[in-house]
Please model this.
Amino acid sequence: MSGETPLQVLARTGAAASEPSRMRSIERFPYYTSFPFSWYRACTSADLAPGAVKPLRYLNRDLVVWRGEDGAPHVMDAYCPHLGAHLGFGGRVAGCEIVCPFHWWQFDGEGRNTKIPYLETRNSSARIPAYPTVERNGFVFFWYHPRGEAPLWEIPIVAEHGDPGWTPYHEAKWRVRAPWQELAENGPDFVHLRTVHGAVRVPELEAYEVDGWLARLRARVTFDTPRGPRPGRIDTDSWGAGFGVARFTGIIDALFVAVNTPIDFETTEVSFHYSIRKLGDSAEDLERTKRVGEALIRDLEKQEAEDIVIFDHKIHVPHPKLSGVEAPIVKFRAWAKQFYVDGDPRGTNA
Ligand code: FES
Ligand SMILES: [Fe+2]
Model:
């Protein structure tokens, strides 16, 4: 097909967003009966100065993220067990603890009440559920498990982040009306790169392997350049539902960190943070790096808008009629299944 496809016209004009399906997510995605256990992004490190307190809404619940004066970030449920104030609206940090805005009860990073300012005592039964929280690769992550189990894996360190040879992250964020699994299934679906995004060359899959909580995708790609075709690679590692890293190498080296956090069962927040290896240190090299970066953003934003036309409206086909080239999708689904367990009434898609 030459020129813009009808889908690309919808993506460009935004018409796709105007008519959501009347189906509920549980009808569209029947497997999505609970939120998967995973590390999820709460915010970026830059969004959370020492002493900051912010309200969040993820996983069907109100949360608060705050940073103690020792620099440690914390994610907890938002509501004070005393009389129910939301800590994210008017709460403040005192040292390494958070103070409720209503009657100033104070809580530590584990959510334990440590102080009631108008009494000489504290209330040991007043406890706010707190989530294991780590800061890594420029993000604050919290661990969610429907049964409250401790983290089952660690977020790996992304060496490129903070390396002076790489540009700082550029963030691009969307809300999509589909769960993470649908977005992640798009990774091994190389055919859509041609049909949805109009790619002239489709990567060649070398390997798609799943190993516990990790899924690895290895692919060769050919880039067309003014000096002819040049070889490159796309290598993607995904840890659970909330965190994945794609590395593009070849004519330029780029890093895409993809983080998804469910807002509720209807909507997922998708964000990409990408960085490129600087093409050199001179003013001219940096200018060239900037131009390459801007072209990448434009391309990423175009691709995401196109994918969203599909994601916002699609359903899950439990027994898909696949062609011979789509075997990785079956493997992907078997891998994805392991992250769902029940046990959390607030995290159940009833
Ligand atoms: S509601 Fe939080 S201290 Fe009273
Ligand atoms: Fe896509």
About this structure: Residues 283-311 form the longest helix (29 residues). The pocket of FE2/S2 (inorganic) cluster (ligand 1) is lined by residues 80, 82-85, 100, 102-103, 105 (CB under 6 Å). The domain at 170-337 is CATH 3.90.380.10 (Naphthalene 1,2-dioxygenase Alpha Subunit; Chain A, domain 1). The CA atoms of residues 210 and 334 lie 9 Å apart.
